[in-house]
Amino acid sequence: MTSIELTKLINQQMNREFYSAYLYLKFASALEQLKLPGSAHWMEKQAKEEVLHGLQFYSFLVRQEAEVILEPINAPEEIPEDCVIKIFAAALRHEKYITRQLNDLTALAAGEHNFCAMSFLSKMLDQQVADEFSVHTISERLILSDNKRGALLFIDSELAKR
């Protein structure tokens, strides 16, 4: 059985994941405006993945017979829309924030000896580490490009393959 506190925080994380999807769609829109359709495509795929993560939290709560609390999803924060490097840097900051939240959730589950939640959260953390590394790698490549159009177009074409 999942404690009231852990249930509350898992619900908050579920809602964070759905918010993340909105945020990635905002990033995609900004990248479309910058005429980087491959990068926008990558962000759209990431938005879909965030929805999947939210649904995984939802399913966990349902399987635990815990209360599901669907909160309103806020509009995404303002982002720098004028530079692909800044957009991916904002995505990386967000991924690091999500990683911290998942670590805190896992620590609470461990403290409660909730091994079902720990197992579930461990899988979510594995996905999160991969997501954070992916955004970090793209960000590093963009920084190395030094905002040169040819390099940006090459990276954009690579991101279109996702």
Give the DSSP E fraction (strand runs of 2 or more residues).
under 5%
H/E element string?
A: HHHHH
CATH class: Mainly Alpha
The CATH architecture classification is Up-down Bundle
The count of strands amounts to 0
Report how far apart the termini are: 39 Å
CATH superfamily: Ferritin, core subunit, four-helix bundle
Low-confidence stretches: none
Q: How would a textbook summarize the main sheet?
A: none
Number of individual domains: 1
Helicity, as a percent range: over 70%
Tell me, briefly, the overall form.
elongated
Tell me the structural class: mainly alpha
Number of helices: 5
Mean pLDDT, all residues: 97
User: Which fold name is given in CATH as the topology?
Assistant: Ferritin
Output the radius of gyration.
17 Å
Task: Write up what this structure looks like.
With 162 residues, this protein is an all-alpha fold. It has a single domain (4-159), classed as Up-down Bundle (Ferritin), CATH 1.20.1260.10. It is built from five helices and no strands. The chain has helices at 4-33, 37-63, 84-111, 115-145, 149-159. Helix 1 (4-33) runs antiparallel to helix 3 (84-111) and helix 3 runs antiparallel to helix 4. The longest helix is centred in the last third of the chain and has 31 residues, at 115-145. The protein is elongated and about 55 Å long. The N and C termini lie far apart (39 Å).
